[in-house]
């Protein structure tokens, strides 16, 4: 018979932790609780549900069919609770005098300048700080409240992997580039064999983003800045670069964009704006959210 009392968040957290760790001891370590406490929480949840959630086989604790069916919904409830917690704190986060924004180095600087100009006009006393950081630390910063906004390449899928909100801003186009004096500049088409055997230069921030741009070559070299990377291309190697950045050197005949049978067109990588849950409750942050929409005047950069 199913009990009428409701479950607790501690019980749900214990259930998910045991599913993930497949042991009560491992779940206890993840939650900072002892094994007995975790087992009691799970047992209380089973009593409420009226059926078992785990089967013990040796040292492993395996979820039942019912538990596996229940798990996605429980994860959603816990995620919603975390968002509610973030929102509850954001509502009273006044006054706002300091805004921290993270951006990816491939982002067109025009968008950054547009936001900066509007902030100076509307809130001249507001301090806005712009930081170039990797994806994981940026999302962690938003969750903790250290970061207000982050403009980063999207990795695909619906969920960003952290309790944050996000919106699509547009795409940045990328192409395959080599130096004008590089031996690769004379080839007619850049093939898969070229991509794998020739030296590939990749920016550090692209690797930190863990997105579309990754290492393809058997000989890859990581460089911290786009400007240094493009300078290295003058003597050899290849790289995937934002066209809006590389085209400035292409016009000066320092870089050449290669055509390739690997691509039907330029690579288009979506960029998204990530921000705190409850940011809309803060009038300054809410205004800035509309500025980002206004700053994107075209879909392709």
How is the topology of this model organized?
Elements: H1 9-21, H2 24-31, H3 35-49, E1 54-57, E2 60-63, H4 65-90, E3 98-103, H5 109-122, E4 127-132, H6 135-144, E5 149-153, E6 165-179, H7 192-197, E7 200-203, H8 204-209, E8 220-223, H9 226-233, E9 239-242, H10 243-250, E10 255-258, E11 267-275, H11 283-295
Parallel strand pairs: 3-4, 3-5, 7-8
Antiparallel strand pairs: 1-2, 5-11, 6-9, 6-10, 6-11
Explain the overall architecture:
The protein is an alpha/beta fold and 301 residues long. The protein is 42% helix and 22% strand. It is built from eleven helices and eleven strands. Strands 3, 4, 5, 6, 9, 10 and 11 form a seven-stranded mixed beta sheet that branches. Strands 1-2 form a two-stranded antiparallel ribbon. Helix 2 packs across helix 3. The longest helix has 26 residues. The radius of gyration is 25 Å and the shape is flat.
